[in-house]
Amino acid sequence: MYLIESKRDGEWIYDPGVAMALQEYVKDHIFLDDDVLFPYMMQPAVQIGKFQNAYEEINQPYMDEHDIKIIRRETGGGAIYLDDRNMSFCFLFNGNNDIYGNYTRLYEPAIKALQKLGVVNLEQKGRNDLVLDGKKISGAAMTLQNGRIYAGYSLLLDPNYEAMVSVLNPNQKKIESHGIQSVRSRVGSIRPYLATEHQEMTVWEFTDYMICQLLEIDDISQAKRYELTSKDWAGVDKIAAEKYNNWDWNYGRFKQFEYRLTERFSIGTISIGLSIEHAKIAAIQITGDFFGTKDVKEVEEALVGERLRKADLLKSLEMLDLINYFGKLTKEELVNFMLSIPTVEV
Known about the structure:
This protein is an alpha+beta fold. It has 12 helices and 17 strands.
């Protein structure tokens, strides 16, 4: 099995979009005489499944505040929070491998490796989860493409529980959608279960150990590597820019959904119903018991066609004085409300 590391000029690449683009590039353009392992670690990000509605999965205000990105992957499954405290492992297997659809088989080498570190009570459970003492420490996904099996999972060595709970707790009041929603599970951590002599293992030591176990070698220096060329990196960068670091792919790919919000402000109650297509406002209706001297329809018209993104919404309202429509309400308050950001205390 070849090892392909997410390194450029000897330095690890932590950009979530580039990490995902690297996997896609290798999957579609690099065909070697053996299977492939590519570990990756990224800056804080939420990785969602191909068929999920981003707005149902994430707490966008928390993500904005903590500079957490969202990345839509090419495989199905649910949302997962990833950061530089845990390592993920992706694989490309020959299509003749019996691993497709068999998550027990996929996890088997990882379970054996963890058991050698003293971790017991591991079990592949449900459709694609690995649980430790009843708590989820990994979720896997796989697909079949170009005659090869593309699969992967993350191993939660030191999960940031605060960020994980906050970011995967969407705060929209009501969304009507046909997206594949994540099943929220109790999340665990590998470290407390490591044998005493391994308790101080760093994430990089853990990564090197897992790579050696998965490649069945004694030392990381023995790994059979494929080094990405400058041409390869140009292809990776192109995919990252056009897809994984592209707002339309991450948010706009989901075709259509609707949601409704109601909030009490100092100027009265405002209710907003929105119809969203490809993450842009297709229709909006604003109602409430507020007082205004102008028709709120002008506000609705200004917002139609805009991306459901704070900067875009604020820009669309630049030429309007909201006092004429609602009374003492700022553009920031209205937009934050539309994105379900709690800014008003009554």
